[in-house]
Amino acid sequence: MKIVALSDTHGFHKKLTIPDGDMLIHAGDFSMRAGLRDVVEFAKWFKAQPHQYKIIVAGNHDCYCEGDRQWTRDEFYPAIYLCHEEATVHGYKVFGSPYSSSIFEPSPWSFDYPKEGPRSEALWSQIPEYTDILITHGPPKGICDWVPDVHPSESNNVGDENLTFHIKRALPRVHIFGHIHEGYGAYMSPLFSTRFYNACVCNRQYKPVNPVLTFDL
Fold it and tell me: For residue 149, what pLDDT band results from cuts at 50, 70 and 90?
């Protein structure tokens, strides 16, 4: 199974070269701040891609998707839209979530939650064991989540610590995410078997310069 993974395309999807593959996965932020027309236009493009299987989660910029979940699911069909839920795709167990911990509070964005507090644990404890493909918009703590500009008292690694903990518990085969543009790339932890892919297409300046990632599963 050849996976093609991208994230944080922020409206530049038509400018991209999308490699061939079996499964196309988008990990959120397909827009700058999605309204109805943005969702409809992107869904049309995404569904038209030739990959046999297509899966997408929303991101914090995809604001319209935070409203009517069923409308969004129907708009992307037959591509699979996952909103903190699981699906079985060609025998692979997939869990997809749009949530990401907010870098600043209060947050003006969608699908955000405070970095500290019970909501994080409540969300990520729901990742099923024996998941093959985990898709989240936000990164786990310490993995492809470094940002340069933080308060001196805070860590430059802005991912979610509870997400890291539950990845260690569930041990998905791969974890695809985005959100932190500076963290683009693949990473293999020496501590556990999951392969990590920050699939951000846009860099920190919102320029679509990073190649779409591909890998075999």
Answer: confident
